[in-house]
Amino acid sequence: MTLFQPIFLSIWKRKETKIYLSIAVLYSLMVLASTFLPEKSNFMRFSSDSGYLFSASTVAYILINSVNDFVLPSLTLFLLSYNVFKGEAENHILFLYKDLKRRDIFVAKIASLISIVLIFLGLFLVCQFALYYGRLIHLPIFSPNFWNSDSAENAAFWMMCWVFIMESILSILLAACLSLYFGKGVTLTASFAFSLGLSIFQVLGGAFLYFIPAGYFSYDTYTGIGSLIVSLLGSTCLTLVYSSILIVLAYRYFKQMEY
């Protein structure tokens, strides 16, 4: 895709991208700082009962789940997506691509934003594992093992990584769609509503879980690699359904938009 590289580089240089990626580093630094706080402090502290020892993959699962529930990364990603679509049109930056196919521009923008999400996840995992083996491993409740002896916890790690990607893709597409049809206020408000909605559906449980990417995996019902594959497929298929609707709506407006 000839357009991917220049569009990706333009997105890479944005301050919103730098803020978004910096969260991956700062979050791990916050966890690192919490290990030096007094034992009575509960701020971002790990606790263990009955001699349980955390593994690196289990800690990664916990932290990815935590940062995924954190509003700031979602808000920043929504803002970045808004500026990439509506912001560039309002600032007449898209005029530079006036002789190119709208479909190619649209696809390159989506692919570039997804690439930023993958970089975020990779950077977050690198920082987390550096934190684990540089600091946490020296504390009594952490083991030197990368994988947990419980295969369900290892499966939860893979599922959480996948859910993070799926929910981030939905965030990008939802922000793109709302930014084109509405304004910045609606788009940023939607970031809070989206995060809140995911959390509420998880709390409600039951049939509501099948409406969110994270709802297809349960630690209690995990029986082996087969159930993990089913969970991954369920999350993926749901994301594809939502994504298809958002892509159609967003592209319908984008292809007719004046620069």
Structural account:
By secondary structure, the chain is mainly α. The protein has one domain (4-33, 53-254). Helices cover 69% and strands 0% of the residues. The protein has eight helices and no strands. The radius of gyration is 20 Å and the shape is globular. The chain crosses the membrane at residues 20-38, 58-85, 106-135, 155-181, 188-212, 224-251.
Q: In a few lines, what is going on in this structure?
A:
This protein is mostly helical and 259 residues long. It has one domain (4-33, 53-254).
Task: Provide tags for this entry.
259 residues; mainly alpha; 8 helices; Sugar ABC transporter permease
- Mean pLDDT across residues: 91
> Which value, in Å, is the CA radius of gyration?
20 Å
Structural class designation:
mainly alpha
Contiguous low-pLDDT stretches (5 residues minimum) are none
Strand count: 0
Strand content: under 5%
Shape from CA axes?
globular
Total number of domains: 1
* Main sheet properties: none
Instruction: Give the topology string: H per helix, E per strand.
Output: HHHHHHHH
DSSP summary: helix tally: 8
Helix content: 55-70%
Distance between the termini: 22 Å
